[in-house]
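Hi all, posting the design record for the shared folder.

TITLE: backbone redesign
STEP: 1 of 1
STRUCTURE INPUT:
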Protein backbone atom coordinates (compact mmCIF):
# COMPACT_ATOMS: atom_id res chain seq x y z
CA UNK A 1 0.00 0.00 0.00
CA UNK A 2 1.01 3.60 -0.65
CA UNK A 3 -0.33 5.84 2.09
CA UNK A 4 -0.04 9.64 1.96
CA UNK A 5 0.03 11.40 5.34
CA UNK A 6 -0.77 15.10 4.81
CA UNK A 7 -2.05 16.79 8.00
CA UNK A 8 -2.11 20.38 9.20
CA UNK A 9 -0.68 21.27 12.60
CA UNK A 10 -2.73 20.80 15.76
CA UNK A 11 -2.72 24.40 16.97
CA UNK A 12 -0.98 25.03 20.31
CA UNK A 13 0.02 21.39 20.45
CA UNK A 14 1.90 19.83 17.51
CA UNK A 15 3.45 20.98 14.24
CA UNK A 16 2.22 19.41 11.00
CA UNK A 17 5.45 17.41 10.84
CA UNK A 18 4.93 16.06 14.37
CA UNK A 19 1.34 15.09 13.56
CA UNK A 20 2.50 13.26 10.40
CA UNK A 21 5.16 11.42 12.41
CA UNK A 22 2.62 10.33 15.03
CA UNK A 23 0.19 9.04 12.38
CA UNK A 24 2.98 7.10 10.68
CA UNK A 25 4.20 5.64 13.97
CA UNK A 26 0.73 4.32 14.80
CA UNK A 27 0.09 2.87 11.35
CA UNK A 28 3.52 1.22 11.16
CA UNK A 29 2.71 -0.90 14.19
CA UNK A 30 0.23 -2.89 12.11
CA UNK A 31 0.97 -2.04 8.46
CA UNK A 32 4.67 -2.81 8.24
CA UNK A 33 4.75 -3.39 4.51
CA UNK A 34 3.14 -0.08 3.55
CA UNK A 35 4.94 2.78 1.81
CA UNK A 36 4.34 5.92 3.87
CA UNK A 37 4.81 9.34 2.26
CA UNK A 38 4.63 12.24 4.72
CA UNK A 39 3.66 15.67 3.39
CA UNK A 40 3.23 18.21 6.25
CA UNK A 41 0.66 20.80 5.18
CA UNK A 42 -0.57 24.31 6.05
CA UNK A 43 -3.17 26.76 4.77
CA UNK A 44 -1.00 29.85 4.42
CA UNK A 45 -1.20 30.90 8.05
CA UNK A 46 0.89 29.88 11.02
CA UNK A 47 3.08 26.88 10.26
CA UNK A 48 3.27 27.44 6.50
CA UNK A 49 7.00 28.13 6.52
CA UNK A 50 7.78 24.98 8.48
CA UNK A 51 5.43 22.86 6.38
CA UNK A 52 6.93 23.89 3.05
CA UNK A 53 10.50 23.78 4.31
CA UNK A 54 9.99 20.31 5.80
CA UNK A 55 8.28 19.02 2.65
CA UNK A 56 11.13 20.21 0.41
CA UNK A 57 14.13 19.70 2.72
CA UNK A 58 14.73 23.43 2.83
CA UNK A 59 16.22 25.74 5.47
CA UNK A 60 14.81 28.32 7.87
CA UNK A 61 16.68 31.57 8.56
CA UNK A 62 16.04 34.26 11.18
CA UNK A 63 17.05 37.69 9.84
CA UNK A 64 16.82 40.73 12.10
CA UNK A 65 13.71 42.83 11.39
CA UNK A 66 11.52 45.44 13.08
CA UNK A 67 8.37 44.29 14.86
CA UNK A 68 5.05 46.19 14.46
CA UNK A 69 6.25 48.87 16.88
CA UNK A 70 9.72 49.26 15.38
CA UNK A 71 11.67 47.15 17.86
CA UNK A 72 14.38 44.78 16.62
CA UNK A 73 13.48 41.07 16.66
CA UNK A 74 14.38 37.88 14.79
CA UNK A 75 11.94 37.17 11.95
CA UNK A 76 11.46 33.94 10.04
CA UNK A 77 12.35 33.22 6.42
CA UNK A 78 12.22 29.82 4.76
CA UNK A 79 14.12 28.83 1.62
CA UNK A 80 12.68 25.74 -0.06
CA UNK A 81 14.88 22.84 -1.08
CA UNK A 82 15.06 24.05 -4.68
CA UNK A 83 16.85 27.18 -3.47
CA UNK A 84 14.89 29.51 -5.75
CA UNK A 85 11.75 29.97 -3.63
CA UNK A 86 11.32 31.77 -0.31
CA UNK A 87 8.36 31.48 2.04
CA UNK A 88 7.51 34.25 4.48
CA UNK A 89 4.90 34.47 7.21
CA UNK A 90 4.26 38.17 7.70
CA UNK A 91 3.16 37.43 11.26
CA UNK A 92 6.76 36.56 12.16
CA UNK A 93 7.66 40.23 11.63
CA UNK A 94 4.39 42.18 11.78
CA UNK A 95 2.14 39.86 13.74
CA UNK A 96 -0.38 40.46 16.50
CA UNK A 97 1.32 37.98 18.84
CA UNK A 98 4.55 40.01 18.80
CA UNK A 99 3.11 42.80 20.92
CA UNK A 100 1.07 42.85 24.10
CA UNK A 101 -2.64 43.59 24.20
CA UNK A 102 -1.88 46.95 25.81
CA UNK A 103 0.51 47.91 22.99
CA UNK A 104 -1.88 47.14 20.12
CA UNK A 105 -2.68 50.27 18.14
CA UNK A 106 -3.14 50.04 14.35
CA UNK A 107 -2.75 53.80 14.02
CA UNK A 108 1.00 53.29 14.58
CA UNK A 109 1.81 49.61 13.91
CA UNK A 110 3.74 48.94 10.71
CA UNK A 111 4.49 46.24 8.13
CA UNK A 112 8.08 47.52 7.75
CA UNK A 113 9.46 44.23 9.10
CA UNK A 114 7.60 42.27 6.43
CA UNK A 115 9.33 44.39 3.80
CA UNK A 116 12.65 43.56 5.44
CA UNK A 117 11.89 39.85 5.15
CA UNK A 118 11.13 40.30 1.43
CA UNK A 119 14.44 42.14 1.03
CA UNK A 120 16.27 39.35 2.86
CA UNK A 121 14.74 36.85 0.44
CA UNK A 122 15.91 38.94 -2.52
CA UNK A 123 19.41 39.00 -1.02
CA UNK A 124 19.37 35.19 -1.21
CA UNK A 125 18.74 35.29 -4.94
CA UNK A 126 15.27 33.74 -5.03
CA UNK A 127 12.96 33.98 -8.04
CA UNK A 128 9.72 33.16 -6.23
CA UNK A 129 8.36 34.45 -2.93
CA UNK A 130 5.36 33.01 -1.09
CA UNK A 131 3.92 35.32 1.55
CA UNK A 132 1.38 34.18 4.14
CA UNK A 133 -0.47 37.23 5.40
CA UNK A 134 -2.55 36.03 8.33
CA UNK A 135 -2.34 37.28 11.91
CA UNK A 136 -1.19 40.86 11.35
CA UNK A 137 -1.10 43.62 13.98
CA UNK A 138 -1.37 46.29 11.28
CA UNK A 139 -3.79 48.31 9.18
CA UNK A 140 -1.29 50.30 7.14
CA UNK A 141 -2.11 48.97 3.67
CA UNK A 142 1.44 47.65 3.29
CA UNK A 143 2.88 51.16 3.46
CA UNK A 144 5.62 50.12 5.88
CA UNK A 145 6.54 47.19 3.64
CA UNK A 146 7.04 49.50 0.65
CA UNK A 147 9.17 51.86 2.74
CA UNK A 148 11.49 48.96 3.65
CA UNK A 149 11.84 48.03 -0.03
CA UNK A 150 12.90 51.51 -1.14
CA UNK A 151 9.57 53.01 -2.15
CA UNK A 152 8.64 56.44 -0.85
CA UNK A 153 5.19 57.58 0.27
CA UNK A 154 5.38 61.36 0.56
CA UNK A 155 3.20 64.07 2.08
CA UNK A 156 2.40 67.40 0.43
CA UNK A 157 5.76 68.85 1.52
CA UNK A 158 7.77 65.98 0.01
CA UNK A 159 8.50 64.39 3.39
CA UNK A 160 7.99 60.62 3.94
CA UNK A 161 4.86 59.84 5.93
CA UNK A 162 5.24 58.05 9.26
CA UNK A 163 4.50 54.48 10.26
CA UNK A 164 1.00 53.12 10.79
CA UNK A 165 -2.50 53.47 9.42
CA UNK A 166 -2.88 56.84 11.08
CA UNK A 167 -0.31 58.39 8.74
CA UNK A 168 -2.00 57.32 5.50
CA UNK A 169 -4.16 60.44 5.49
CA UNK A 170 -0.98 62.46 4.83
CA UNK A 171 -0.16 60.60 1.60
CA UNK A 172 0.13 62.92 -1.39
CA UNK A 173 2.66 61.34 -3.75
CA UNK A 174 3.98 57.83 -4.45
CA UNK A 175 7.61 57.65 -5.59
CA UNK A 176 8.80 54.17 -6.64
CA UNK A 177 12.02 55.37 -8.30
CA UNK A 178 14.19 53.63 -5.73
CA UNK A 179 12.01 50.54 -5.23
CA UNK A 180 14.28 47.48 -5.19
CA UNK A 181 14.93 46.63 -8.87
CA UNK A 182 15.17 42.91 -8.15
CA UNK A 183 11.42 42.82 -7.52
CA UNK A 184 10.81 43.07 -11.26
CA UNK A 185 12.28 39.62 -11.78
CA UNK A 186 10.50 37.89 -8.88
CA UNK A 187 7.13 36.14 -8.88
CA UNK A 188 5.19 36.85 -5.66
CA UNK A 189 2.29 34.68 -4.53
CA UNK A 190 0.22 35.69 -1.54
CA UNK A 191 -1.51 33.12 0.63
CA UNK A 192 -4.74 34.93 1.37
CA UNK A 193 -7.74 33.10 2.81
CA UNK A 194 -10.07 36.03 3.39
CA UNK A 195 -11.84 37.82 0.57
CA UNK A 196 -12.64 41.10 2.29
CA UNK A 197 -12.07 44.35 0.36
CA UNK A 198 -9.80 47.15 1.54
CA UNK A 199 -12.50 49.58 2.71
CA UNK A 200 -16.12 49.81 3.82
CA UNK A 201 -18.18 48.03 6.47
CA UNK A 202 -16.78 44.69 5.32
CA UNK A 203 -13.25 46.04 4.90
CA UNK A 204 -9.99 45.76 6.78
CA UNK A 205 -10.62 48.34 9.51
CA UNK A 206 -14.20 47.37 10.36
CA UNK A 207 -13.76 43.59 10.28
CA UNK A 208 -10.35 43.14 11.90
CA UNK A 209 -9.70 46.50 13.56
CA UNK A 210 -11.09 45.54 17.00
CA UNK A 211 -8.77 42.54 17.41
CA UNK A 212 -5.80 44.74 16.50
CA UNK A 213 -6.65 47.24 19.25
CA UNK A 214 -8.80 49.74 17.32
CA UNK A 215 -11.56 51.65 19.12
CA UNK A 216 -14.76 52.58 17.22
CA UNK A 217 -13.33 56.05 16.52
CA UNK A 218 -10.05 54.55 15.31
CA UNK A 219 -11.93 52.23 12.96
CA UNK A 220 -13.64 55.18 11.24
CA UNK A 221 -10.33 57.04 10.97
CA UNK A 222 -8.51 54.02 9.59
CA UNK A 223 -11.24 53.26 7.06
CA UNK A 224 -11.19 56.84 5.79
CA UNK A 225 -7.39 56.76 5.61
CA UNK A 226 -7.48 53.52 3.60
CA UNK A 227 -9.99 55.09 1.20
CA UNK A 228 -7.62 58.02 0.70
CA UNK A 229 -4.70 55.60 0.25
CA UNK A 230 -6.63 53.61 -2.39
CA UNK A 231 -7.61 56.82 -4.17
CA UNK A 232 -3.98 57.99 -4.44
CA UNK A 233 -2.93 54.54 -5.73
CA UNK A 234 -5.77 54.63 -8.26
CA UNK A 235 -4.78 58.04 -9.59
CA UNK A 236 -0.99 57.66 -9.56
CA UNK A 237 -0.46 53.95 -10.30
CA UNK A 238 -3.65 53.39 -12.31
CA UNK A 239 -4.55 50.39 -10.15
CA UNK A 240 -7.92 49.98 -8.49
CA UNK A 241 -7.38 47.76 -5.47
CA UNK A 242 -10.01 49.20 -3.12
CA UNK A 243 -12.70 46.59 -3.74
CA UNK A 244 -10.49 43.69 -4.85
CA UNK A 245 -11.39 40.52 -2.88
CA UNK A 246 -8.55 39.89 -0.45
CA UNK A 247 -7.17 43.42 -0.64
CA UNK A 248 -8.22 43.99 2.96
CA UNK A 249 -6.33 40.96 4.27
CA UNK A 250 -3.69 41.68 6.93
CA UNK A 251 -4.89 45.25 7.35
CA UNK A 252 -4.63 46.02 3.65
CA UNK A 253 -1.27 44.34 3.09
CA UNK A 254 -3.01 42.38 0.33
CA UNK A 255 -3.77 45.66 -1.42
CA UNK A 256 -0.20 46.90 -1.05
CA UNK A 257 1.30 43.69 -2.41
CA UNK A 258 -0.92 43.80 -5.49
CA UNK A 259 -0.55 47.54 -6.09
CA UNK A 260 3.20 47.87 -5.61
CA UNK A 261 4.65 44.39 -6.24
CA UNK A 262 2.18 42.95 -8.78
CA UNK A 263 1.56 40.02 -6.46
CA UNK A 264 -1.07 37.36 -7.06
CA UNK A 265 -3.58 36.61 -4.30
CA UNK A 266 -4.36 32.89 -3.94
CA UNK A 267 -5.82 30.51 -1.37
CA UNK A 268 -3.11 29.37 0.98
CA UNK A 269 -3.93 25.68 0.72
CA UNK A 270 -3.69 25.85 -3.09
CA UNK A 271 -0.20 27.33 -2.87
CA UNK A 272 0.96 24.69 -0.39
CA UNK A 273 -0.47 21.86 -2.49
CA UNK A 274 1.42 23.18 -5.52
CA UNK A 275 4.80 23.56 -3.83
CA UNK A 276 4.64 20.21 -2.00
CA UNK A 277 3.66 18.37 -5.22
CA UNK A 278 0.85 16.76 -3.25
CA UNK A 279 -1.30 16.01 -6.29
CA UNK A 280 1.48 14.09 -8.06
CA UNK A 281 2.06 12.06 -4.90
CA UNK A 282 -1.63 11.22 -4.52
CA UNK A 283 -2.17 10.00 -8.11
CA UNK A 284 -1.10 6.39 -7.40
CA UNK A 285 -1.86 6.32 -3.66
CA UNK A 286 -4.18 3.79 -2.02
CA UNK A 287 -5.15 5.93 0.95
CA UNK A 288 -4.69 9.46 2.30
CA UNK A 289 -4.60 10.57 5.93
CA UNK A 290 -5.10 14.22 6.84
CA UNK A 291 -6.25 16.16 9.88
CA UNK A 292 -6.13 19.21 12.11
CA UNK A 293 -7.05 20.21 15.64
CA UNK A 294 -10.77 20.61 15.01
CA UNK A 295 -13.01 19.53 12.12
CA UNK A 296 -16.43 21.01 11.43
CA UNK A 297 -18.58 22.23 8.54
CA UNK A 298 -16.36 25.32 8.19
CA UNK A 299 -13.47 23.09 7.10
CA UNK A 300 -14.72 23.30 3.52
CA UNK A 301 -13.76 26.99 3.36
CA UNK A 302 -10.13 26.45 2.40
CA UNK A 303 -8.77 24.52 5.39
CA UNK A 304 -6.03 21.92 4.90
CA UNK A 305 -8.20 18.76 5.15
CA UNK A 306 -10.57 20.20 2.53
CA UNK A 307 -7.75 20.95 0.09
CA UNK A 308 -6.25 17.50 0.59
CA UNK A 309 -9.60 15.76 0.19
CA UNK A 310 -10.61 17.65 -2.96
CA UNK A 311 -7.26 16.73 -4.49
CA UNK A 312 -7.62 13.06 -3.58
CA UNK A 313 -11.19 12.98 -4.87
CA UNK A 314 -9.92 13.66 -8.40
CA UNK A 315 -8.25 10.23 -8.33
CA UNK A 316 -10.88 8.38 -6.22
CA UNK A 317 -8.44 7.94 -3.34
CA UNK A 318 -10.17 7.52 0.06
CA UNK A 319 -9.41 10.16 2.71
CA UNK A 320 -9.36 9.52 6.46
CA UNK A 321 -9.36 12.49 8.83
CA UNK A 322 -7.88 12.48 12.32
CA UNK A 323 -8.73 15.43 14.58
CA UNK A 324 -8.69 16.51 18.19
CA UNK A 325 -12.35 17.39 17.94
CA UNK A 326 -14.90 16.23 15.36
CA UNK A 327 -18.03 18.39 15.30
CA UNK A 328 -21.51 16.96 14.88
CA UNK A 329 -22.02 18.77 11.57
CA UNK A 330 -19.25 17.01 9.60
CA UNK A 331 -21.83 15.06 7.57
CA UNK A 332 -21.87 17.98 5.14
CA UNK A 333 -18.23 17.25 4.28
CA UNK A 334 -18.66 13.77 2.83
CA UNK A 335 -19.53 15.15 -0.60
CA UNK A 336 -16.06 16.72 -0.81
CA UNK A 337 -14.24 13.38 -0.85
CA UNK A 338 -13.88 12.63 2.85
CA UNK A 339 -14.36 8.96 3.73
CA UNK A 340 -14.28 8.94 7.55
CA UNK A 341 -13.55 11.13 10.58
CA UNK A 342 -11.88 10.01 13.81
CA UNK A 343 -11.49 11.99 17.02
CA UNK A 344 -8.35 11.23 19.02
CA UNK A 345 -9.86 12.12 22.40
CA UNK A 346 -11.08 9.25 24.52
CA UNK A 347 -13.18 10.05 27.55
CA UNK A 348 -13.50 13.33 29.41
CA UNK A 349 -10.32 15.39 29.74
CA UNK A 350 -9.25 19.00 30.14
CA UNK A 351 -7.96 21.12 27.24
CA UNK A 352 -4.53 21.09 28.89
CA UNK A 353 -4.53 17.27 28.93
CA UNK A 354 -5.75 17.08 25.33
CA UNK A 355 -2.94 19.34 24.13
CA UNK A 356 -0.32 17.56 26.22
CA UNK A 357 -1.28 14.05 25.11
CA UNK A 358 -2.04 14.82 21.45
CA UNK A 359 0.92 12.89 19.98
CA UNK A 360 0.14 9.75 21.98
CA UNK A 361 -3.58 9.97 21.15
CA UNK A 362 -2.91 10.47 17.44
CA UNK A 363 -0.58 7.47 17.43
CA UNK A 364 -3.11 5.28 19.26
CA UNK A 365 -5.99 6.33 16.99
CA UNK A 366 -3.88 5.70 13.88
CA UNK A 367 -2.91 2.25 15.15
CA UNK A 368 -6.57 1.35 15.64
CA UNK A 369 -7.45 2.59 12.15
CA UNK A 370 -4.54 0.53 10.83
CA UNK A 371 -5.92 -2.58 12.51
CA UNK A 372 -9.25 -2.08 10.73
CA UNK A 373 -7.42 -1.63 7.40
CA UNK A 374 -5.42 -4.83 8.00
CA UNK A 375 -8.56 -6.73 8.91
CA UNK A 376 -10.33 -5.81 5.69
CA UNK A 377 -7.22 -6.44 3.56
CA UNK A 378 -7.12 -9.97 4.90
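Okay, here is what came back for every position:
SEQUENCE:
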Amino acid sequence: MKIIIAPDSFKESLSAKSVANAIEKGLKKVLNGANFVKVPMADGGEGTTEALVDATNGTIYHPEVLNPLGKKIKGKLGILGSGDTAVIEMASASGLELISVEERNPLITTTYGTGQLIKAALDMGVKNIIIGIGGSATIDGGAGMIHALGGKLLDSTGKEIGFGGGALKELSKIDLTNLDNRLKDVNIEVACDVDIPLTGENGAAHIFGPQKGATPDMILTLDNNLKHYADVIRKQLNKDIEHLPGSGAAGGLGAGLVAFLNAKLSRGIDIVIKYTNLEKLIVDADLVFTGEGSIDSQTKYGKVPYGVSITAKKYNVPVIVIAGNVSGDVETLYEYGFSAFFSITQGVCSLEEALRDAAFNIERTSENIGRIIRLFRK
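COMMENT: Residues 2-40+285-377 form a domain with the Rossmann fold fold (CATH 3.40.50.10350).
Let me know if anyone wants the other runs.
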